[in-house]
């Protein structure tokens, strides 16, 4: 996920105030507009805003990645304005495959921000699949369809009050189909 959080920290406020459910998130990266001694040793202070960021990323099971080359990520074009580390990357907690990212000063071009990159290994994996089929217009197909229709008619949907109860019914239906 790529995040831009403006100087008012709108993105962080959104994540903090909204229940966001994203499963299997591997990376959050972006311009967080937060100076902090946690990621910039030249900055002497710790911010409560960065504390909120750490809590939010921790809720996604992500941790702050330290780049292999610790350099600034934003270079100001304005005289007297400081160069900063405000572009960050958070990676899957405890992952040995995703551990450090790079900051590419040479790719800056016309932007005042330096690009951050990480290599994500993709492992070729063979997944054995077994397909079952029923011959079209066969007695077995008719019996299967009748069984599914009967199962659906007998589903107890009187207590569909939340996502969990819907998920339970879906799982029950899936289990029935797989073992019919």
What does this structure look like?
By secondary structure, the chain is an alpha+beta fold. It contains four helices and six strands; from the N terminus they run βαβαββββαα. The protein has two domains: 2-117, Endonuclease/exonuclease/phosphatase (Deoxyribonuclease I, Chain A, 4-Layer Sandwich); 139-178. 28% of the residues lie in helices and 12% in strands. Strand 1, helix 1 (10-17) and strand 2 (27-31) form a beta-alpha-beta unit.
Secondary-structure blueprint:
Blueprint: E1 2-4, H1 10-17, E2 27-31, H2 48-59, E3 62-64, E4 87-92, E5 102-103, E6 116-117, H3 139-153, H4 163-178
Parallel strand pairs: 1-2
Antiparallel strand pairs: 2-4, 3-4, 5-6
For this entry, give a set of tags.
180 residues; alpha+beta; Deoxyribonuclease I, Chain A; 2 domains; four-stranded mixed beta sheet; two-stranded antiparallel sheet; 6 strands; 12% strand; elongated
Write a compact overview of the structure shown.
This protein is 28% helix and 12% strand. It has four helices and six strands, in the order βαβαββββαα.
Q: How would you write the strand order of the largest sheet?
A: 1-2-4-3
Compressed to H and E, one letter per element, the order equals: EHEHEEEEHH
Estimate nothing, just give the exact number of structural domains. 2
CATH topology of the largest domain: Deoxyribonuclease I, Chain A
Structural class: alpha+beta
Helix content range:
25-40%
Categorize the overall geometry.
elongated
| Strand content bin | 5-15%
Q: Quickly name the level 1 CATH class of the largest domain.
A: Alpha Beta
CATH superfamily of the largest domain: Endonuclease/exonuclease/phosphatase
**Shape-level CATH architecture of the largest domain:** 4-Layer Sandwich
**Largest sheet features:** 4 strands, mixed
